[in-house]
Design a protein that fits this description.
The protein has helices at 7-15, 55-58, 67-77, 91-103, 117-133, 155-160, 164-167, 202-212, 236-248, 301-305, 327-342, 345-364, 400-410, 432-452; strands at residues 34-38, 41-44, 49-52, 110-114, 142-146, 178-180, 216-221, 225-226, 232-233, 252-256, 280-283, 295-299, 370-376, 379-387, 392-393, 413-414, 421-424. By secondary structure, the chain is of the alpha/beta class. The chain folds into two domains: 32-65 and 344-452, Aspartate Aminotransferase, domain 1 (Alpha-Beta Complex); 71-342, 3-Layer(aba) Sandwich (Aspartate Aminotransferase, domain 2), CATH 3.40.640. Bound molecules: pyridoxal-5'-phosphate (PLP). The site of pyridoxal-5'-phosphate has 14 residues, from helix 5.
C-alpha cells in the first residue's frame, strides 16, 4: 500500500471519479488496475490475482472472459451491434423476450427493455402509476417500500430505497413514499425461527396497506434478500403473505429481482420459492452474465392492455432509452439463458451452496465478533457484531468491514463488505479449491484485523 502509484493509477486519480467511493480514500488506497480476468480471478498490473468473491457487484455468473459468451459477443458485433428499438426490432431481443416469458413466473407475458437496474425500477414505477391513472384509479399516486430496501440510485429508485447512507441527503428531492418496517430475521422482534416462521412481521406492511391502500399504486420489494442492506435474508412465507395482501388491497407488487434473479437464491427466480407471480418483475445484473448493461421489466397482459389503444387516446407508455434493447447485450443474455438450459446450472448452484455452507459454518460459527453466518443459494453473509450476546453492532464510523476488505485484498481476495457484513457471492463456476481459499482467506483477514486491534482472543 506504500508503493508509489503506477502511471495508470496516477492518471486514473487525475481524471476519474469512481462510483460509491470517497475519493480521498484513494490517496492511501489507490485503485487497483485490472488488466485481465479469467474465471473467478481478476489480475492486476503486477500480475497479482484476486478471487472475485462478489461477482464484480453481483453481475457475474459464469466467470470473467467466459469463452462461450465472448465468442457470441464477438460474432454478433460483426453482424449488428445496435439499432433504434422503436418501430425496429431484431432477433436477439425477440428470442430473449420469448425465453424470459417462458422462464419467469406464470402470468408474466410482456417484456420491456431498459439498460440498467435503476432504469428498470423507474419503468416499473411509472408503468404502475400510469396503469392506475388509465384505469380510473387516479388517487393511486404513492409507493410503499420497506425499511432497508435498495432499488438503485436514480431519483425514483432512491425514493423507494431505505438505506440512509445513499438517500438521506437527497430527501428534499425524493417522492413521498410510504415506508413499512421490513423483516429483520437476525434481530427478529418476534423470536421466530426461520424454519417455522409465519411472518408475523408482515403485520407492519399490512398496517400500512390498510391505512394507505387508496393512495397506493404499488409495493416494491427485494424478494428473499435485501442485498445492499447487508444481505438481510428472510423466508418465502413473507413474500407469499405480501402477495396476498397486495391482491386484497388492490395494489401492484413489484419484485426487484435485479440482485437475486438468475439462480442466485437456488431457484431461477426468488419468487418461485414463494410460488407467487408479481405484477412486475425487474431483472438486470446477472441477465448478461456480467458482460453488458441491460435490464428488463416483465409484466402481465392485464397491465399491458391498459396502455393498448388508438394513438390519439394518449395511453401509450412513452418511455425510452437510447440503448433500449441493445443488440449485443440481448445476444449475450440469450447465450446466458442457453447456458442455463444446456448445462446443469441449478444443480451446480445447489451443490456449491452446500459446500459453501459447510465450509463457512466450520470457519465462522464459533468466531468472536461473528453474530451470524447466514446463507441462501450462493449468497453467504457474515454479520460482525461488537457483542455476540446482545448482537450490538459495531459503530459504522469504525469501518470494520472496510479494514477487513483491505486485508483480504492483500491476500488475493476481493470481498467489498456492506458495513459490518462480509459476504460471499461468487460466480457459479467457482471450483471447490477456490471456494476453500475464499473462506480460509476471509477468516484470516478477520483474525488479522482483530489481532492488530489487540482484541482477538480466539
Ligand atoms: C443493483 C441493484 C439495483 C440497481 O441496479 P443498477 O444497474 O446498479 O442501477 C436495483 N435493485 C437491486 C436489488 C439491486 O441490487
Amino acid at each position: 500500500m506504500n508503493q508509489p502509484f503506477t502511471d495508470l493509477q496516477t492518471r486514473d486519480l487525475q481524471y476519474v471519479w469512481h462510483p460509491c467511493s470517497q475519493m480521498k480514500d484513494y490517496e492511501t488506497f489507490p485503485p487497483i488496475v485490472i488488466t485481465k480476468g479469467q474465471g473467478v480471478w481478476l489480475y492486476d498490473e503486477q500480475g497479482q490475482r484476486y478471487l472475485d468473491a462478489v461477482s464484480s457487484w453481483w453481475v457475474n455468473l459464469f466467470g470473467h472472459a467466459n469463452p462461450r459468451i465472448s465468442q457470441v459477443l464477438s460474432e454478433q458485433a460483426f453482424i449488428l451491434e445496435h439499432t433504434i428499438f422503436a418501430n425496429f426490432t431484431h432477433e436477439p431481443a425477440i428470442r430473449l423476450a420469448e425465453k424470459l416469458v417462458a422462464l419467469t413466473p406464470n402470468g408474466l407475458q410482456k417484456v420491456f427493455f431498459a439498460d440498467n437496474g435503476s432504469s428498470a425500477i423507474e419503468v416499473a414505477l411509472k408503468m404502475s402509476f400510469q396503469y392506475h391513472m388509465q384505469t380510473g384509479k387516479s388517487a393511486k399516486k404513492r409507493f410503499l417500500a420497506l425499511t432497508d430496501a435498495y432499488h438503485g440510485e436514480t431519483i425514483g429508485a432512491l425514493s423507494v430505497g431505505g438505506v440512509g447512507l445513499y438517500n438521506d441527503i437527497y430527501q428534499p428531492l425524493l417522492l413521498d413514499t410510504v415506508r413499512a418496517k421490513g423483516p429483520d430475521c437476525f434481530r427478529c422482534p418476534f423470536q421466530e425461527e426461520p424454519a417455522s416462521c409465519h411472518a408475523p412481521c408482515s403485520q407492519f406492511v399490512e398496517e400500512q396497506l390498510k391505512a394507505h391502500h387508496q393512495d397506493l399504486t404499488a409495493v416494491i420489494i427485494e424478494p428473499l434478500i435485501q442485498a445492499a442492506a447487508g444481505m438481510k435474508m428472510y423466508p418465502p412465507v413473507y413474500l407469499k403473505r405480501l402477495r396476498a395482501l397486495c391482491t386484497q388491497y388492490d395494489v401492484h407488487l413489484i419484485a426487484d429481482e435485479i440482485a437475486v434473479g438468475f439462480g442466485r437464491t437456488g431457484t431461477l427466480f426468488a419468487c418461485e420459492q414463494a410460488d407467487i407471480t408479481p405484477d412486475f418483475m425487474c431483472l438486470s445484473k446477472g441477465l448478461t452474465g456480467g458482460y453488458l448493461p441491460l435490464s428488463v421489466v416483465v409484466t402481465t397482459n392485464e397491465i399491458y392492455s391498459a396502455f393498448y389503444d388508438d394513438y390519439g387516446t394518449m395511453r401509450a407508455f412513452l418511455h425510452s432509452h437510447s440503448y433500449s434493447g441493445n443488440t449485443l447485450a440481448c445476444r449475450v443474455a440469450l447465450e446466458v439463458l442457453t447456458i442455463f438450459e444446456e448445462e446443469p446450472v441449478m444443480e451446480m448452484i445447489q451443490r456449491k451452496g452446500q459446500w459453501m455452507r459447510a465450509l463457512a459454518m466450520t470457519a465462522f460459527n464459533e468466531m468472536p465478533y461473528v453474530g451470524e453466518y447466514r446463507q441462501i443459494g450462493l449468497v453467504g453473509a457474515i454479520e460482525l457484531v461488537a457483542d455476540r450476546a446482545t448482537k450490538e453492532p459495531f459503530a459504522s464510523e469504525a469501518r470494520i468491514g472496510y479494514q477487513i476488505y483491505q486485508r483480504a485484498l492483500a491476500k488475493g481476495l476481493l470481498l467489498r463488505p456492506l458495513g459490518n457484513v462480509l459476504y460471499f457471492m461468487p460466480p457459479y463456476i467457482i471450483s471447490e479449491e477456490d471456494m476453500r481459499m475464499m473462506i480460509a482467506t476471509a477468516k484470516e483477514a478477520i483474525e488479522q484485523f482483530f489481532h492488530e486491534r489487540g482484541e482477538y482472543i480466539g
